[in-house]
Amino acid sequence: MLRRAASGQIPDPCACPFRDSDIAPMSHSLTLDRPLRGALRLPTLPLLTLLTLLSGGSLLLACSSGSIALGAGELWLAASGHGSQLADTLLSLRLERALTAWVTGGSLALAGVLMQSLLRNPLADPYVMGVSGGASVGALLALWLGLALWQVDSAAVAGALTLSALLFLLARRDFARSSGTVLLLLTGVLLSAACGALISLLLTIAPDAQLRGMVFWLVGDIAGTPLRPWPWLALLPAALLAWWQAPAINLLALHGDHALTLGVPVAMLRRLLLILAAILTASAVSQGGSIGFVGLMVPHACRLLCGPDLRRLIPAAVLSGAALLVLADTLARTVVAPMQLPVGVLTALLGVPVLFWQLQRTRRRLA
Amino acid sequence: MLHCDQLTLRQGRRTLLQPLTWQVRAGECWWIAGRNGCGKSTLLATLAALRRADGGHIRLCGQPLPQLTPRQRAQRLALLPQASHDAFDYAVQDAVAAARFAWPDSGDTPQRVAAALDAFDLGRLASRPLQALSGGERQRVALASVMAQDAPLILLDEPSNSLDLAHQAALQQQIGRWRAEGKAVLLVSHDLQLAPACASHALLLDEHGAHRQYPLAELNAEHLAAVLGYPLTRLHHAGHPCFLPGHPS
């Protein structure tokens, strides 16, 4: 091309026809194995293997620890159906609770990653934006009315989706401006405050008999939540869809509106992210009440660990969010046994110092 | 390559651009000049389909702009925006590689990214995080991204912002190479030395939406001074025209 130009002929790039059939679907597996530029600098495969082992290990630990500890041998026997009745019962109880924690933690972490990329703000999470507040209002309303468990769940989902839709309608035009992120974040904070007021109102007018359940539900607790299929049906497709779209979400996080000029269907992608985050939040809130902090801290920690590239960050956040909540829940039910702490208290108490430490490291690195 | 037919831009009631009929061909570089707020960036945003035209039609490579998918547009047109803010700490080479999004991965991504990094002297900074860069370095990353995107029409909004002298010269050379490759460049700039050295044509916009088009050879100091609202002198320096503020003494 250069030679032709040198001879005075200017080629017309428009003349070369583009055919859409030439365009392969986004392929990112090819470049996935480059060395990482996060703090650990582990290649992708070992990192994800490590995190998979960690989150599997957290399940094992959760199954073995408790008022009656189960050794590896007993676990194996119970799992293969030859254990004692006590071990069988303990295993199924603990595994059920651990799996609930796993899917809740994974959902919260993924919702956080998606909202942060959507808003291009590392401080955004479902709690800041009021999405979980919407879910809480819905659920508390159902609890106050004395509805059945499945109705409480549905009310939580309805609340989260309503809040997301409201957020989307109010701030629809903010997506189109580069300055819109601030307005959108403020809208979220306002909606969150409104939900907070509604929650206080519901707690004030609730009869004493329901008050304890409502408060405990608000704090965030996994105890007593039965293992249900639909949070898994929300998390797995959402994670796969987000991972498949990771190159596009990367560009949205990098360039905001201008990602459009790089070929990203920005409006559609933003809608997708908002809906996915709402469903994941509703699922997590209906499982474990309001467990704050996971959606904020896990993406942060993972970003420091493996860099901001969502092709790595999405699976890493799901796996470590899951592991974190399983471990925190295990700790919550063993640390002052026989009393059980709400897991939300532990995630905050454990998470804050870790986050501070990592922020301090980042400050030093940037200085 | 780019054809505007009676293109009109408005902001509220104010007319930013009176109907403009304009043709940009391969190998041309248009200097778009005008005072602050006269609608230069809005024009680029409209051409990049970031906002809708308030009247008229735009055809890019023969096809109406609104009919192209984002991916098709990105294969034909690249935009260097005026400012960028980085919320996340992507590494320089990852940010540049991400600009290849619109193209199917044919295995040449690493070479193209390396070439773009080299062209803007970013080889040393390849694995540095964006947030650790200076303003000029960040601007060079944005330019390298535009280069990696490899579109035939390149829109540059103030590309020489915060670049040091040597990198401004490198930018000028790169624009020359793009033109030789048959790409077209639209250059919004207040740089009275760099822009005339790069451009083949000029589009002058005034504050009331009026506009004039000139081949650069015919652009004299009076034309430009009338639009910019400041007296200018046209000189010839290092084989290119350039403009200096003030009357000839």
UniProtKB/TrEMBL annotation, chain A:
Q: How does it sit in the membrane?
A: Multi-pass membrane protein
Q: What InterPro entries has UniProt attached to this entry?
A: ABC_BtuC-like, ABC_transptr_permease_BtuC
Q: Where are the transmembrane segments?
A: 47-79, 99-119, 126-149, 155-171, 183-203, 234-253, 273-298, 340-359
CDD domains tied to this protein: TM_ABC_iron-siderophores_like (cd06550)
List localization entries: Cell membrane
| Alphabetical keyword list | Cell membrane, Membrane, Transmembrane, Transmembrane helix, Transport
Task: Check the record and name the Pfam families matching this protein.
Answer: FecCD
Stated family: Belongs to the binding-protein-dependent transport system permease family. FecCD subfamily.
UniProt xrefs under PANTHER family: ABC TRANSPORTER PERMEASE PROTEIN MJ0876-RELATED, FERRIC ENTEROBACTIN TRANSPORT SYSTEM PERMEASE PROTEIN
What is the name attached to this protein's record? Iron ABC transporter
Organism, by scientific name, is Vogesella fluminis
The taxonomic lineage of its organism, from the top, reads:
Bacteria, Pseudomonadati, Pseudomonadota, Betaproteobacteria, Neisseriales
Automatic annotation (TrEMBL), chain B:
Entry keyword annotation includes Mitochondrion: no
Q: What range(s) does the ABC transporter domain occupy?
A: 2-232
Protein's UniProt keywords contain Cytoplasm:
no
Q: Which Pfam families match?
A: ABC_tran
Signal peptide bounds? none
Keywords per UniProt: ATP-binding, Cell membrane, Membrane, Nucleotide-binding, Translocase, Transport
In alphabetical order, the GO MF annotations are:
ATP binding
In terms of superkingdom, the source organism counts as: Bacteria
Cross-referenced InterPro entries: AAA+_ATPase (IPR003593), ABC_transporter-like_ATP-bd (IPR003439), ABC_transporter-like_CS (IPR017871), P-loop_NTPase (IPR027417)
Which PANTHER family does the record match to this protein? Answer: HEMIN IMPORT ATP-BINDING PROTEIN HMUV
The UniProt function text for this chain reads:
Part of the ABC transporter complex HmuTUV involved in hemin import. Responsible for energy coupling to the transport system.
Record protein name field: ABC transporter ATP-binding protein
Its source organism is: Vogesella fluminis
